[in-house]
Design goal:
The structure holds 3 protein chains of 3 kinds. By secondary structure, chain B is α/β, with parallel strands linked by helices. Chain B contains 20 helices and 18 strands. In chain B, the strands form 5 sheets. A 5-stranded mixed beta sheet of chain B has the order 1-16-17-18-13, with helices on one face. The chains are: A alpha+beta, B alpha/beta, C alpha/beta. The interface between A and C is large, with 38 and 56 residues.
């Protein structure tokens, strides 16, 4: 990461921490902001957050690793989370899962080589009446069938240049 | 003249979840509702409101097993082994975390309780890789002891046949073997809450959760200060010190090598515990015999170099004061900080690097001794220093890191080759078939033989300060310190409070003694001054002092501050026998102060061996050119960021 | 999501703001009395009497108190809070405001699970409207001296944060690990201050009760389980969706309404609930019989019950916070045992051992997750032995 970008990140982190109350309670929302903008929370970001909150970086790391939606490593730009819990399971999630793997050429827990897609399991998404359900980032797709998988992936591919799913998302290497 | 009750702002670092566990004891025990009668296994006892079931059971002599509970740490309530049945409650309760607020009836070994404990043990053992007989903690392992207590004779839920993790040997001081970890989180609470260093935390969740460093980096690459307090509190062998015993044996077995060992005061006060003695029974002179039996060529007393440290560090303080008060030199950094605790030194290098100038440049006694042995002693004995192997017996895991600092080679060789902890030496002694407590007593070897009481008390918090004050007061006033303090016991700096502060007014001054004539001409400038000193032990307290200084608080006016990384000072060091508790540390401290009283010479500057080395070797006196070359060092600003 | 079946809910018929108006006319004790009299119990599943909870928090001596709405709906098979927050968020906030008034809190927090991020804008919008309408802020609802604000905090994908003390830990910026209890949140909650954490539905009912009166609510349901309950129904039935029934309804009646009468079992209360076989369909859904947070999962005749148990245990194995031994290691052992059963490698002896382990987990785990996670497995083993043991090495016994 280049220095001006680091400074910008540190500045943003200070801003978010203040916005959410300036104490440790601001930790989770701040990490969520970083995750949303940068796709992960880098080592540098963790240490800046820790410094501003007067806690230890390892505590920030401990918190990030606890929550499924926070990452320290890069994931794809589109994180596809397929619900694996009982109702979606009974509604046929296994075939959808296989089709996702086939279409993307990766297994669950992996990311595509181009960095566009990550495939993950999710626990109950609260869409049991619409199963099988999946989330692409924070967008919901319900009653997914193997045939629909292709459309979902295509819509993501099309959106890749257009930034329709997440407007403010910026990736910093 | 003294003010021991200095109150600094208490920040509660422990998460609310842990701090709220502690119920404040009722102020007036006679008030209605302040005490509650609790029935445990049909026995009744009256306890103050908020007492935990575990504490109440202890008072009744009822044994409840524990794993994650530790007297020094906040309550976690995670291992669940201390589960008991509370009448009227659907589930079992963790007795370490259950505050008694109503008259309850408790049963500690019903069928449900026994089954739960056995299951918990079986579950822990199903993940605990390794064989007991191939473990550093064999026979001193809390998990092993519980397995015996509960008659574990087979692994109900299996037992791992291969390791899942690689052993982390990246640190000079601490080895982490996560295959033996049972996730009791004592190390986490030690590191984050007790020491406030913040190296270890639980990462991940569920079965995948694991105690990790920042982004799981090797321990040698993170802000670990090597204090080893986590080792002392680990119930199993997941954390242990980096053991160089094999290398030391090899040196002993090599006829070409002249192997000398120096022994620090704290291991002598603690080693008996490894041989089944009650805490607080020093085996100083029995150990000398045992060490010779093991094959060490010479046995020296670290107290000699502790005395040397006092002279060098004391002189350095006087020079700093002179520069600041007389020459009005603004660049002089005050207060001066002690530098004999390598854990504290690394703590400062990481978290307060801007205060490095305040650290005394004097090396720690261990390193001074190494430099002296490989120069002065080598010359005296006509031994080639390359054939000398210096071993240091220390209560400390951080000393292992210290002797491997690249700058610690001023003699032209590695000042100290190996640092042994109390536990490792006890192991070597038993390996040699020696029953330490039964040994005859024998003295230390010359030419450093005679030590003073000042060197001995280095082991307890406040000891360095007391030793330094004894010398500084006598050098400056020209009068016996006994005139100011009965028996030369400087009580105000003693004790176990985390931070202590004292003021010593200098009402009269004497002539400048020969020893320091080369640095000051007279003491007039000190007449009427008040020496302000402070003592802190445990890095959490050190941090509080540093924050006070940073904020320009009362402690920033101090002239001299003693810091020890470990709670209780060296007697509570990370290399000391396991277990540790406030009572054990207090017993070891009593042993040390008793030893001090028994010495004829109790002041560093009166040590004949010290007089001799300044006459024969360091002829230009303390803090002179040669002294600086051999006995002083420099520090590395490390910072807390890992890039 | 328009095709969701949503039964007509009472919430749609409640006039917005009426409950708050009624509450603000009473004094604080009056509000708590009304809620207590209604017999409302926590709708998240544990069933703690809401009035008692509010009363404890109101009695706590602390100038700072908090109201927390638990919208971390993560129990498998539960989605009613999603529907309530989509259609009736106003009522939920009204309930929170009433609670704040009753206990003397100035600040409320809605903890919304990360999976419902798409609801965040909608919810914030409603909050904005409430602030504009002076239903929040200083002199909220026109009551002089009553100040209350609500903030939305997002979860980040951790089921355990639905446990009230884990939720508070999460709000404090910690790993979402449940605390030791006592002390309870009503005395020592968020940042050490008295806190009332209630489920989304509980707050909505509280507002409804203040609007329609405790008598109305009390009359519905059974003696120990008063009032109406919102159910999330999914699985093998003709019409999955959100339903409203009085508590005390039998499983059979419920199945009839949702079109699942051919079911061979029903999971009541989600993964942490219990699996009721067809022969017990006359049992009542109520706190005194089969308790539930609202999740009803219907299993048709063709379902492999061991696979169901496997799915539940996979869920807990992933979502346990990992701090206490029984839950961290136990879920994995039971899951492993299920795999052994599936492969016919589990002896009867070991199966019994696993059931005993299940009992230990229920008794010795630190929080509700570990205490309930073996329920599904245990009830499936008990109620469907033919499906479990036929494949296991029964011959080894």
């Amino acid at each position: 990461m280049l220095t001006p970008e680091r400074d910008q990140l540190a500045e943003n982190i200070t801003k978010w921490i203040d916005q959410y109350g300036g104490n440790r309670s601001a930790l989770l929302p701040t990490l969520q902001e970083i995750q949303k903008r940068h796709g992960r929370v880098t080592e540098y970001a963790m240490q800046v957050v820790a410094d501003k909150l007067s806690i230890h970086p390892v505590e920030v790391y401990g918190v990030i690793t606890f929550y499924a939606f926070l990452d320290t490593k890069y994931k794809g730009r589109f994180i596809i989370r397929l619900c694996r819990t009982i109702s979606c399971d009974m509604a046929g999630k296994s075939r959808v899962a296989r089709q996702l793997e086939n279409d993307l050429g990766i297994k669950f827990g992996e990311s595509t080589a181009d960095g566009r897609f990550t495939l993950e399991w999710a626990n109950c998404l609260g869409l049991c009446d619409h199963g099988p359900a999946l989330l692409v980032n924070s967008q919901v797709f319900t009653h997914v069938t193997p045939e629909k998988v292709h459309d979902i992936i295509e819509s993501c591919r099309k959106a890749f240049g257009a930034h329709t799913l997440q407007k403010e998302e910026v990736h910093i290497a | 003249m003294t003010d021991k009750n200095i109150k600094l702002k208490e920040e509660s670092r422990a998460p609310v979840s842990s701090s709220v566990q502690k119920f404040a004891a009722p102020q007036n025990e006679k008030a209605i509702g302040a005490t509650i009668t609790v029935t445990i296994d049909d026995k009744q006892i009256k306890v103050p409101m908020g007492t935990t079931i575990l504490e109440a059971a202890k008072k009744l002599n009822i044994h409840i097993p524990t794993l994650c509970y530790h007297e020094d740490l906040c309550v976690a309530g995670v291992c669940r082994i201390c589960a008991v049945e509370v009448e009227g409650q659907r589930t079992l309760q963790a007795s370490c975390a259950y505050p008694i607020t109503a008259p309850i009836t408790v049963r500690t070994h019903t069928r449900k309780v026994r089954q739960a404990r056995r299951h918990i043990l079986d579950l822990l053992l199903s993940k605990h890789y390794g064989e007991c007989y191939a473990c550093a903690r064999n026979n001193n392992c809390e998990l092993q002891a519980l397995a015996k207590e509960y008659g574990v004779d087979f692994f109900r839920f299996g037992h791992p046949d291969k390791p899942r993790f690689e052993v982390d040997r990246s640190s000079y001081s601490v080895v982490r073997d996560m295959d033996k970890c049972i996730l009791c989180r004592r190390c986490v609470r030690t590191c984050i809450d007790l020491q406030e260093v913040g190296v270890l935390e639980v990462a991940g969740r569920s079965e995948a959760s694991k105690v990790e460093t920042f982004v799981d980096k090797p321990l040698g690459e993170v802000v670990c200060i090597n204090c080893g307090q986590c080792i002392n509190r680990c119930p199993t062998g997941a954390l242990r010190a980096n053991d160089p015993a094999d290398e030391v044996w090899a040196a002993i077995d090599d006829p070409a090598k002249h192997v000398v060992i120096q022994t620090a005061p704290s291991p002598r006060a603690g080693i008996g515990e490894c041989f089944g003695l009650e805490p607080g029974q020093p085996l100083t002179f029995q150990m000398n015999t045992a060490l010779r039996l093991c094959g060490f060529d010479k046995v020296f007393d670290t107290n000699f170099s502790a005395d040397l440290t006092i002279i060098e560090e004391g002189t350095e303080l006087l020079i700093r004061l002179y520069k600041a008060l007389v020459q009005k030199d603004k660049s002089v950094a005050l207060p001066q900080f002690t530098s004999c605790s390598p854990g504290w030194v690394k703590f400062l290098e990481h978290f307060y690097p801007e205060y490095i100038p305040n650290l005394s440049s004097a090396k720690s006694p261990q390193q001074m001794f190494g430099a002296v042995i490989k120069t002065y002693y080598a010359k005296l004995m006509k031994i080639d220093p390359k054939d000398i192997v210096t071993v240091a017996l220390m209560p400390c895991s951080a000393k292992k890191f210290e002797c491997n600092r690249p700058e610690m080679c001023d003699s032209g060789f590695k000042d100290i080759d190996y640092g042994l902890t109390t536990r490792e030496l006890a192991q070597m002694i038993s390996e040699a078939g020696i029953n330490l407590p039964a040994m005859e007593k024998s003295d230390f070897d010359d030419p450093f033989g005679t030590a003073t009481g000042s060197g001995v008390i280095f082991g307890a918090t406040g000891g360095v300060m007391e030793a330094a004050l004894r010398t500084v007061i006598e050098l400056v006033t020209g009068k016996k310190v006994e005139n100011f303090f009965d028996h030369a016991d400087i009580i105000p700096v003693r004790g176990m409070e985390g931070i202590r502060y004292a003021e010593i007014p200098i009402k009269e001054v004497g002539p400048v003694p020969d020893l320091v004539k080369h640095v000051v001409k007279d003491w007039k400038w000190l007449k009427g001054a008040t020496l302000k000193v402070a003592v802190a032990h445990g890095t959490a307290n050190a941090k509080r002092v540093m924050e006070n200084i940073k904020a320009g608080g009362k402690l920033s006016e101090c002239h001299f501050i003693e810091f020890m990384a470990c709670p209780g000072g060296c007697i509570g060091g990370g290399g000391q026998p396991i277990p540790t508790s406030p009572a054990i540390r207090a017993a070891r401290a009593r042993a040390i102060y008793a030893e001090d009283t028994a010495y004829e010479v109790r002041k560093s500057h009166e040590n004949p061996a010290i007089e001799r080395i300044y006459n024969e070797f360091l002829k230009e006196g303390p803090c002179s050119h040669l002294a600086h070359k051999l006995l002083h060092t420099h520090y590395t600003p490390r910072g807390k960021y890992i890039v | 999501m328009s095709e969701t079946y949503t039964a007509p809910l009472t919430f749609s018929k409640v006039k917005a703001g009426k409950g708050l108006e009624a509450a603000l006319e009473l004094d604080r004790a009056g509000v708590i009395n009304e809620i207590t009299a209604s017999g409302l119990k926590g709708r998240g599943g544990a069933g703690f009497p809401t009035g008692v909870k509010w009363n404890l928090a109101a009695a706590a001596k602390d100038p700072v108190k908090y109201v927390v709405c638990n919208a971390d709906e993560g129990e498998p098979g539960t989605f009613k809070d999603r529907v309530i927050l989509t259609d009736h968020a106003d009522l939920v906030f009204e309930g929170m405001t009433i609670c704040a008034y009753a206990i003397g809190a100035k600040k409320g927090i809605l903890y919304l699970r990360g999976e419902y991020t798409y609801l965040q804008d909608h919810i914030e919008g409603i909050l904005r409207k409430r602030r504009e309408a002076k239903l929040l802020g200083k002199n909220a609802g026109g009551k002089k001296g009553f100040e209350f604000n609500i903030e939305v905090r997002m979860g980040s994908g951790a089921y355990i944060c639905g446990e009230e003390t884990a939720l508070i830990e999460s709000l404090e910026g910690q790993r979402g690990e449940p605390r030791n209890r006592p002390p309870f949140p009503v005395n020592t909650g968020f940042l050490g201050h008295p806190t009332v954490p209630n489920n989304v539905e509980t707050f909505a009912w509280a507002a409804t009760i203040m609007s329609k009166g405790s008598e109305w609510f009390k009359k519905i349901g059974t003696d120990k389980s008063a009032g109406l309950k919102i159910f999330s129904v999914s699985g093998d039935c003709k019409q999955p969706g959100v339903y409203e029934f009085p508590l005390g309804i039998t499983i059979k009646e419920l199945l009839k309404a949702v079109g699942g009468l051919d079911a061979k079992a029903v999971q009541v209360g989600g993964a942490s609930g219990s699996c009721v076989p067809a022969r017990e369909f006359n049992r009542k859904i109520a706190f005194e019989d089969v308790a539930t947070g609202g999740s009803i999962i219907v299993f048709g005749p063709q379902r492999d019950m061991l696979k169901v148990a496997e799915n539940f245990m996979e869920f807990f194995h992933d979502e346990s916070c990992g701090q206490c031994t029984p839950c961290r290691e136990g879920n994995g052992k039971i899951l492993e045992g299920i795999h052994m059963l599936q492969q016919g490698k589990c002896s009867m002896h070991y199966l019994r051992e696993l059931c005993a382990l299940g009992e230990t987990m229920q008794l010795a785990s630190k929080c509700g997750l570990g205490q309930t996670s073996p329920n599904a497995f245990l009830s499936i083993v008990k109620n469907f032995p033919d499906e479990i043991m036929g494949r296991a090495g029964a011959a080894q016994e």
